[in-house]
Specification:
mainly alpha; single chain; two-stranded antiparallel sheet; 2 strands
């Protein structure tokens, strides 16, 4: 009888353990689903913003290129009018890429090569000033394309990180400080799965009123999270999500050492 009871208890323990593992697996799967869904929501918001502001943005880039070419190119040059029109047409063309959605690395390389070819045709020493202006304007457009998530350098993720380019003050203020707090990190982690209201974040962190608002403001000011409207719920931004991913990679590497 005792043997039967022991076997029965062992069976139920094994069953309970199996159920717990299944629940944990389901919970992890659900968490991953929420993270993916929330990330898709963020990307959807970015896409809508990109579409809404695209035309005005292209117009601004064209106007900026025309103004800078007209005011900063060498004045006393017989080729000025010809070059100004050629450069303006080129920059208007590259500005138009912004409105086309995804831009391939080969396309940007093509325009960079084109600029280099034009530079070889320079006739006077004054040409360098004009080429410098054109190059600066073009790279300004490329930087904007990166911010809009429509262009990424080929193999950019696999390139070796240049530690010398780290700006300590900016990194500490915009990345380290916002997450160097247990409650803020807890909120950021929770928001990676789904949006949260003020009340839900208060319950999660145990913070109330002004104390919670202080930490939320820190995350809002540094672009880690967004609030849908003045009294709406909070969602994580791409920057916030990327920061969490970076912290996860760092933690994983440290744990494996």
């Amino acid at each position: 009888m005792e043997i039967a009871n022991e076997n029965s208890e062992t069976y139920y323990r094994e069953e309970l353990h199996s159920i717990k593992e299944e629940v944990t697996s389901l919970r992890n799967e659900f968490s991953r689903f929420l993270q993916k869904a929330n990330q898709q929501h963020i990307e959807g918001m970015i896409e809508e913003m990109r579409k809404s502001f695209m035309r005005p943005m292209v117009d601004y880039l064209c106007e900026d290129a025309s103004d800078r070419m007209h005011t900063r190119m060498t004045a006393d040059c017989g080729m000025r009018d010809f070059c100004e029109k050629a450069f303006r047409d080129l920059l208007h063309e590259t500005a138009g890429l912004v409105g086309r959605g995804r831009i391939e690395a080969e396309t940007i390389k093509l325009y960079r090569d084109k600029l280099e070819e034009v530079k070889k045709e320079a006739k006077t020493s004054n040409c360098s000033k004009c080429f410098s202006e054109v190059t600066d304007l073009f790279e300004k457009q490329v930087k904007l394309m990166r911010s809009l998530q429509i262009y990424e350098e080929k193999d950019e993720e696999n390139q070796k990180i240049d530690i010398s380019e780290i700006e300590p003050e900016k990194l500490v203020t915009e990345v380290c400080e916002p997450v160097a707090n247990r409650q803020r990190l807890l909120m950021l982690k929770a928001l990676s799965g789904e949006s949260k209201t003020f009340s839900e974040l208060s319950k999660l962190t145990g913070l109330r009123g002004g104390n919670l608002l202080f930490h939320l403001q820190k995350l809002l000011e540094t672009g880690m999270i967004l609030q849908r409207n003045e009294r709406g719920d909070y969602i994580i931004t791409r920057k916030g999500y990327s920061t969490l991913q970076g912290l996860s990679r760092i933690y994983s590497e440290i744990e494996n050492e």
